[in-house]
Amino acid sequence: MPRFKTILVTGGAGYIGSHCVVDLLNAGHDVIAIDNFANAVCDEEGSPALKRAQQITGKKIVFYEADLLNKPQINDIFDKHPIDCVIHFAALKAVGESMQQPLLYYQNNLLGMLNLLEIMRNHECYQMVFSSSCTVYGEPEYLPITETHPTGSITNVYGRTKYFIEEMLKDLSAADEKWNIISLRYFNPVGAHPSGLIGEDPTKEFTNLMPFMAQVALGKKPVLTVFGNDYNTPDGTGIRDYIHVMDLASGHVAALNYLGSNQVGLKVYNLGTGRGVSVKELVEVFERVTETKIPLKYVDRRLGDITAMWADATLAREELGWSTKLTIEEMCTDFWRWQTMNPDGYPKKSKKTSVIVNGNS
């Protein structure tokens, strides 16, 4: 049995959260998931993604529709359940939107984390895996990026919220040795569960590359908009380290296992493949494996974007025993399976209600 039995997953109904929940259940953990549906789809019964996660694993998830800005609501959940560890995904996450609405991002991401940490402390729960981002590195000084790369010179508000939270966690763990926190700096998650049952279904305008690309391949959108083809890269398009969402999910289980047997204070790890792939290269692989054609429309660079970024994930391999296993081709194949099985994404709620779903759903 895992040392940490009951895991609270904030943002559990979202893209990365729901895939992580599958791996947590398969690893023997009990999952309490919360989400306010800011980035996740809801239907009349709660979260379709989490219902499908139950279908995939054959195990139950306790789910609450809840918001980290509502402290009494979150406190009640901690009162009801003996939570051993928190995996904190919940955050607003769109780079472009963060530049347009900075106050919204600071309120949601920073105050939400403050509330969560205070409630955890009050319930003597000091174990956390934090969903951070490679955006904390800003424009790279060198590549591939190691965890010792300077942070703080960040090009967008979303990345600054992740950086400020990491600084908060650094101060907290220095002030109180009970805290035991791993911050996982993600690179660019793509793909879907191989079953095709769960995947990425954006609730806002398609800002992530692969969902937009798949919509074009399905004929639902006319062209793929590419932000910038004048970067200092071999083909002029931005370079990123794309990581399969299931590899990312397994990184959280590895982090939990490490926390279970080590007191680290605060430790950061990169989760990436170590390989940079340009937007144009990714499109070409997607076209090849899906046998579709994706017309491109190049527009100006997007405010806040950087030229190139890929990880050195040696530390995660050596200390967490984690490494990626899935290829770019598998990322595209799995996402296309999800998209073709669910061309309109998850079933949607007919109208917005404020029903809170408690207990097993």
Automatic annotation (TrEMBL):
Task: Give the Pfam families listed for this entry.
Answer: GDP_Man_Dehyd
A GO biological process of this protein is: galactose catabolic process via UDP-galactose, Leloir pathway
| EC category name | isomerase
Q: What is its EC number?
A: 5.1.3.2
Q: Write out the GO cellular component annotations.
A: cytosol
Keyword check for NAD:
yes
Q: Which UniProt keywords apply?
A: Carbohydrate metabolism, Galactose metabolism, Isomerase, NAD
Pathway in which this enzyme or protein is active: Carbohydrate metabolism; galactose metabolism
Q: Which residues form a coiled coil?
A: none
Q: Does the keyword Lipid biosynthesis apply?
A: no
- Which residues are in the NAD(P)-binding domain? 8-334
Highest taxon of the lineage: Eukaryota
Q: Which cofactor does it need?
A: NAD(+)
Catalytic activities: UDP-N-acetyl-alpha-D-glucosamine = UDP-N-acetyl-alpha-D-galactosamine; UDP-alpha-D-glucose = UDP-alpha-D-galactose
GO: which molecular function terms? UDP-glucose 4-epimerase activity; UDP-N-acetylglucosamine 4-epimerase activity
**Function as written in the Swiss-Prot or TrEMBL entry:** Catalyzes two distinct but analogous reactions: the reversible epimerization of UDP-glucose to UDP-galactose and the reversible epimerization of UDP-N-acetylglucosamine to UDP-N-acetylgalactosamine. The reaction with UDP-Gal plays a critical role in the Leloir pathway of galactose catabolism in which galactose is converted to the glycolytic intermediate glucose 6-phosphate. It contributes to the catabolism of dietary galactose and enables the endogenous biosynthesis of both UDP-Gal and UDP-GalNAc when exogenous sources are limited.
Indicate the quaternary assembly. Homodimer.
Which family does the record claim for this protein? Belongs to the NAD(P)-dependent epimerase/dehydratase family.
Per its record, how is this protein called by name? UDP-glucose 4-epimerase
Q: Which organism is it from?
A: Trichoplusia ni (Cabbage looper)
Gene name on record? LOC113503711
